[in-house]
Amino acid sequence: MVDPGQDEDTGEQGLTGIELTRHRSGRFFGVLHDADAGTATREQARDSLVTLHLPLVEHCARRFRNRGEPYEDLVQVGTIGLIKAVDRFDSERGVEFSTYATPTIIGEIKRHFRDKGWAIRVPRRLQELRMQIGSATAELTQSLGRSPTPRELAERIGCTVEEIVEGMESSNAYSTLSLDASSDDSDDGPGSMLDVIGVDDEGLANVEIRESIKPLLDQLDPREKRILLLRFFKNMTQSQIAEEIGVSQMHVSRLLNRTLTQLRTSLEAED
């Protein structure tokens, strides 16, 4: 039975942690690539290689912590990359397995972020085109000394201008911002997006009524119109209005009731 914890190979005596991992890794790959070994033995060697290099996966996953994805999920995704690296590794090339596996593990984690990070699902070709546009934009900006045009990007990538535009527009689907997300625009400190975005104007519901009543107001006596202005626009009481225009409160009340009745009757007649 092949086990990464086995110590029966006398060549492991006195080896440090890194040296021991390299030694066992070489031994397990030898079994994995041994055509004469049985299927069960090779599968055990493969499992042992994955177990042996899980610390490498955890090390890579820690680089992507606090980016919105659970650490356990990143380790799981990175392990998939590790398995792919084990299956593809050629020990005869003289390259350390950890050197070969690290880009594969990180690539799998980044691919996970690309797939999970899209707020609206878009085709994979647009996701990949977006990445190509980003790289080409950086290169052309440096060489041209300005931002490249869509046509220049299309020529660099080898696609049409329409595809470039489509790829740029797909970037809007990459992420969304919660309405509860904090905003630094407030003088009192961060607030939510709900504090800074527009809301429905409650006055919109009364626009039609105001427009309908304007010509009727123009037909009123100047004193009646002034009483309405003081009462409903300046929020004065009937006593304050009476003092303002020099009449009794009772007279103000009668004028208000008569004017409102007149306006109501006129509006109903128009309807």
Radius of gyration: 38 Å
Our count of helices gives 12
Give the termini distance in whole angstroms. Answer: 93 Å
Which structural class do the helices and strands define? mainly alpha
Major sheet size, sense and barrel closure: 2 strands, antiparallel
Pfam families: Sigma70_r2 (PF04542), Sigma70_r3 (PF04539), Sigma70_r4 (PF04545)
Family: Belongs to the sigma-70 factor family.
Domain HTH cro/C1-type: 234-257
Organism: Nocardioides nanhaiensis
The gist of it:
This protein is mainly alpha-helical and 271 residues long.
Describe it for me?
- Keywords: DNA-binding, Sigma factor, Sporulation, Transcription, Transcription regulation.
- It holds the Pfam family Sigma70_r4.
- Belongs to the sigma-70 factor family.
- This is HTH cro/C1-type domain-containing protein.
- InterPro entries: Cro/C1-type_HTH, RNA_pol_sigma-70_dom, RNA_pol_sigma-B/F/G, RNA_pol_sigma70, RNA_pol_sigma70_r2, RNA_pol_sigma70_r3, RNA_pol_sigma70_r4, RNA_pol_sigma_r2.
- A two-stranded antiparallel ribbon has the order 1-2.
- Mean pLDDT is about 80; it is low at about 5-10 and about 185.
- The N and C termini lie far apart (about 95 Å).
- The protein is elongated, with a radius of gyration of 38 Å.
- Helix 3 packs across helix 4 (about 70-90) and helix 6 packs across helix 8 (about 160-170).
- It has twelve helices and two strands.
- Strand 1 (about 180-185) and strand 2 form a beta hairpin.
- The protein has about 270 residues and is mainly alpha-helical.
- It has helices spanning about 15-30, 40-50, 55-60, 70-90, 95-115, 125-145, 150-155, 160-170, 205-220, 220-230, 240-245, 250-270, and strands spanning about 180-185, 190.
